[in-house]
């Protein structure tokens, strides 16, 4: 299971950073945001927002009927599929060289999974694994969310970095990128090798929180370097913060592949950063509403999904309770 840090501790840390007028990371694995009053107030009253931070909770009921109205013609995927790759994402917190990680490794559909490569870099922290599941003919590339101090340092590095070079005008969150690049060459090499060995297998990138952002960077990296593999790639992320600018998002949408970004109820992370940085989402949002319906919203129509919530509904708890994780 992924670690859960007390909402009270996170709130205290954030308030300390607020006093110092610096960036503040609210929850494990998410991008921090400058949550100074003059910026947050554009989205909600500062009082409501601070109450949400301090209590770790928000509304427990859907605020209006929009949570039952999917985006017209939005792609959809069975909830079982979302839950399966949530389990693969959760496994990244514990898996090493063998498929033995407790609950996530026992999730239905993961039977027969074999870990082919595992990484855990200590200097610029990054952890994940590559596995194959012959039963579902899939190569899984899973990136772990924040789990140690080095990850948190990267969470605070929000400035945009121009990347990748072959997507004109694209920029991404520098902290997310540094932890990806430290291991990207070996990850790409391993996936390319496995894709040649298993030509009929789908390549699924996945991750929770920070891991979801890095899984997204991996997909951009792989498909720009090996465009012939793009049609085999899918991306499933959970509680992912915004990780790239409009040019990056447009490229990801242009791939015309399955990209599903699950948002659990009032999870605050997908709404970050709050400030004026140029980051946006892409792909299809799969919003699990407060009434446990899954609503799908295609790119550009997220106001039908979690963006329809008032910020007072955002909370910490929903970041750690994705089904399957």
Can you characterise this structure?
- By secondary structure, this protein is an alpha/beta fold.
- The chain has helices at 7-19, 37-40, 46-55, 79-91, 149-155, 174-197, 210-225, 246-254, and strands at residues 113-121, 126-133, 138-143, 160-162, 171-173, 202-208, 233-238, 258-264, 284-288, 294-297.
- The strands form 2 sheets. An 8-stranded mixed beta sheet has the order 1-2-3-6-7-8-9-10, with helices on both faces. It has a two-stranded antiparallel sheet with strand order 4-5.
- α5 (149-155) crosses α6 and α6 (174-197) packs across α7.
- 48% of the residues are buried.
Summarize the topology:
Blueprint: H1 7-19, H2 37-40, H3 46-55, H4 79-91, E1 113-121, E2 126-133, E3 138-143, H5 149-155, E4 160-162, E5 171-173, H6 174-197, E6 202-208, H7 210-225, E7 233-238, H8 246-254, E8 258-264, E9 284-288, E10 294-297
Features:
single chain; alpha/beta; 8-stranded mixed β-sheet; two-stranded antiparallel sheet; 8 helices; 30% helix; 18% strand; globular
